[in-house]
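2024-03-11 09:14:02 INFO receiving multi-entity request
2024-03-11 09:14:02 INFO entity count = two
2024-03-11 09:14:03 INFO echoing inputs for audit
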Amino acid sequence: MRDAPDSLPAPTTDRAFLDDALDAADAVGFVAVGDRFDDDLRYLTRFDGPDRDYAFVRADGESVLCAPGLFEEQATREFDGTVRMDGVGDPAGVRAAEALAAFGVDAGLVLVPQSIPHDAAVHLERAGYDLRSTTAVADARLVKTDAELDCLRRVQRAAVRGMRRAETILAESRVEGDELVWEGGPLSTERLRRQVNAEFAVYGVRDAGNTVVGAGPTCADLHYTGTDVLHPGETVLLDLSPRGPHGYYGDLSRTYVVDSDGGWERRAYVAVEAALDAALDEIAPGADAADVHREAAAELAAYGFDPNADEGEAGFTHGTGHGVGVSLHEGPSLRDPVELEPGMVFTVEPGVYDPERGGVRLEELVAVTDDGHEVLHEYPRSFAPRTE
Amino acid sequence: MRDAPDSLPAPTTDRAFLDDALDAADAVGFVAVGDRFDDDLRYLTRFDGPDRDYAFVRADGESVLCAPGLFEEQATREFDGTVRMDGVGDPAGVRAAEALAAFGVDAGLVLVPQSIPHDAAVHLERAGYDLRSTTAVADARLVKTDAELDCLRRVQRAAVRGMRRAETILAESRVEGDELVWEGGPLSTERLRRQVNAEFAVYGVRDAGNTVVGAGPTCADLHYTGTDVLHPGETVLLDLSPRGPHGYYGDLSRTYVVDSDGGWERRAYVAVEAALDAALDEIAPGADAADVHREAAAELAAYGFDPNADEGEAGFTHGTGHGVGVSLHEGPSLRDPVELEPGMVFTVEPGVYDPERGGVRLEELVAVTDDGHEVLHEYPRSFAPRTE
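2024-03-11 09:21:47 INFO inference complete, emitting structure
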């Protein structure tokens, strides 16, 4: 129970950036509407709500949560602003309009995320407000605070525990005929996934449905979740993205081969590891995010792999990385020309795939620091699985 | 590994109900846009997609999935319709409009769920379509097919396994001073939750962040997820809602007291169990869902508990149940005047709470059958925890 991930205090969100966005647009307020799966709302409120809509309103430098019924206690505990229960049962867009009116603004421009539910947008427009979408929240989420970094380090430590569990099982497995056997039965992608997920659970984080385990050809299918029995000599690709304290995600990938005879798998592994290190070397404040991708792609090309392969083809079929925070995928993308800043957190995950043979991906989660980068929880890399 | 929950085939969705809705509204098509957290899309497509928007289109009796980039293989595997990759990278609303145009309809009425993202709605309107919201999908989801019932039975069996784990731990715990101790350390709500979640993981289902464990006064806070040490004599309330095969949820609650001295906890338990049985007795085809709630409330009132208490007050503070399917909360609500039909699945979960003392809730997941109801995986009830 030591280092329980949820013993961390919840990060707070400095919502002054919304006031700046409102000033710049000459807008009277900001409204977000969504449910527990809306990560902007989670970031803005730190409220872990239910699977029905609620609303956040910012106006006059103050923050209001129109909380769902039966959640007043939890909202009051988690949200550092005014919890409003007026109109519980009404649509969240209606309640948001009433919360705005309570500030004395009954017309004018209101900023909203572009994905606000259509019915909420219609309710706000009917109440007399004009809507304009803003990227202010996504922009604010790009750079993490120290408290957010602590959450990310902690959940990534859980990802490492899951990976260690998987690597240990692979190292303990024995070859019988054409199959890997572990604890008396055939070892499958599904068995491995369950063991990893159980490790996450005991450590207090959720697998969030993101535990990808591929074997041989299915490694080339980036989101494979089947039940294949594992074979010696083939790639076993694990991509673990648990969700931990206060909704922050980890992300870690490793690829192992039990009883390899070298060949394609070994060459792919060496190339991917070189691409990973080349990409990591690029990361520093002021660097262009797109250069991190270009470095990885160039290194893979140098090893003879197609750096621009399409899905289903042989080569590098995806981008080198994406931001991670309260969403598993957020900014920055390493394909975009974004200037890296201290506090940005993203994955670096080159990979090469061959639908006929297998796939290799290695992934680290990194934070940009004042003078370079920090790998959020180091975990040794190895082609052959090892016990501790 | 026998009876692995994911060895079930995915249910198929008969989407003819959409054609009926289109005919009735004289509409040219139906469009849904969302991401992996949109359960209507999951139901319509059986595609378990990523955390970025994609689109489903129905027109001319045909179904199209505008799949996200990097997901063509998975979409083709999971979706029984046309997978369209045209315009990958464009907003999902734009792609949906283009998919409609490919049917030869470039104007007219399009039905959408009311929560379609606002930007998608705007893209469709700009492309020349008029939008009207429909409840057709939610209505179709009310009655489950046999394949859906199989998924629900299977995940509820996992909920039972989690509950058995929790009950066993409570039964094995020892009283030391004012605390419960298990395996050498104080037993807390968090430790109990982790053990339950690990059991889910090994059984191949996800806790989905829904494992509620309350202790004493925190049982009255319906969504409590703290880290209290458990005390003898107080209520320990477990509400388990794992997500299993093909996205279907289970839902099961029990309340235990270790080393009870009777009193409020015992009286509350007896009342809640009577209310649960009275409510279950009401369930049959043709019955009014609201009567199920009324029966439970009347029984609790007969035992002296306030059947209409507000949140934070002593008594019965919530409804008696909600539908369960690919969403944890869907129709029917047992507060609404809905005529029960065979194939409807919902929780029955009366409870009484006292913020000063504790809370008791007992919950079964039931399906309406041709001549009554089926409890989806029976699990014995007990006030004092027992080992198997």
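2024-03-11 09:21:48 INFO post-check: The first strand of chain A starts at residue 29 and ends at 34.
2024-03-11 09:21:48 INFO post-check: Chain A touches chain B through 58 residues (CB under 8 Å).
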